[in-house]
């Protein structure tokens, strides 16, 4: 049985480890630095694909880093990756929910605004509509542009499974721990995602 | 959908993603580095000695224990309460009750009968 199977039960603990002195603390800090440096840009791109906005993606990644460091830095380093991506996915989902609520609230507002600055203050304006914008300048290559567009059209859980399994190279158990679901669900989400993406991209890619 | 074609699709999409990660611009990289340093700072501050985190709990527990001790000490000055407790807890008294229950029944009813007779 995978060690990740029991992770979700352990993650709620507030566990400060017995440190073996200053040296081991420094070593752990260096290890955490290396880990975060390895995944930060990948995490940012995954968040950007989901949120369609570079600043929102940065905020979510920064928040995930802080939460990991604050609560789980003392965990064994092999647990950091699924932990980090679980925090990240939760952050992405929270932000998407807030954006949906804001969008609904804005749609209930009667008539056009009298305030000429309101358009610029509308948080929804920060959410890209798929058209080429500032954030798209970050992406090079037609292949990724097409893939990203198709990924955005997937259900959130399928997109998460695809990005964690394929982009991040996680195995099924790690992905299940990061998504907070069963391994069977991961397999189903991933398989559906691959099938849909291949179908949508077949004309462009093949 | 053949397995090989799926693997090919996976490889291609991963390569596209990896290329896009390499293309992340300097502004974003810089902000990610700042975020990482902030996180490491938090981690090093959180990683203090274990007792530091439990100190408030220990303090509260000690105050509670002191409060209970003072309260018990004050209550023990009430001697009659302790005597009652001693009578109830005494095994000897219970043994007497088992030996002569009619006598104790009479003792219990006698004052009531006397007060009824006198009144």
Layout of strands and helices, then pairs:
The complex is a heterodimer of chains A (206) and B (119).
Chain A: H1 7-10, H2 22-51, H3 54-72, H4 80-108, H5 118-121, H6 142-153, H7 156-167, H8 172-179, H9 183-205
Helix pairs in contact in A: 2-3, 2-4, 3-4, 4-8, 6-9, 7-8, 7-9, 8-9
Chain B: H1 3-22, H2 26-46, H3 50-75, H4 79-89, H5 91-99, H6 101-118
Topology pattern of chain B, helix = H, strand = E: HHHHHH
Report the structural category of chain A. mainly alpha
Structural class of chain B: mainly alpha
| Proportion of strand residues of chain B | under 5%
Major beta-sheet overview of chain A:
none
Q: What is the CA–CA distance across the termini of chain A?
A: 39 Å
Short description:
Chain A is mostly helical and 206 residues long. In chain A, 68% of the residues lie in helices and 0% in strands.
Structural write-up:
The complex is a heterodimer of chains A (206) and B (119). By secondary structure, chain A is an all-alpha fold. Chain A has 2 domains: 20-137, no CATH class; 139-206, Arc Repressor Mutant, subunit A (Orthogonal Bundle). Chain A has 9 helices and no strands. Chain A has helices at residues 7-10, 22-51, 54-72, 80-108, 118-121, 142-153, 156-167, 172-179, 183-205. Residues 1-16 and 113-140 of chain A have low confidence and may be disordered. Chain B is mainly alpha-helical and 119 residues long. Chain B contains 6 helices and no strands. Chain B has helices at 3-22, 26-46, 50-75, 79-89, 91-99, 101-118. Chain A binds chain B through residues 16-19, 25, 28-29, 32-33, 36-37, 40-42, 44-45, 54, 58, 61-62, 65-66, 68-70, 73-74, 137-141, 143-144, 147-148, 166-167, 169, 194-195, 197-198, 201, 205, and chain B through 1, 5-6, 9-10, 12-14, 16-17, 19-21, 23-25, 28-29, 31-33, 35-36, 38-40, 42-44, 46-50, 53.
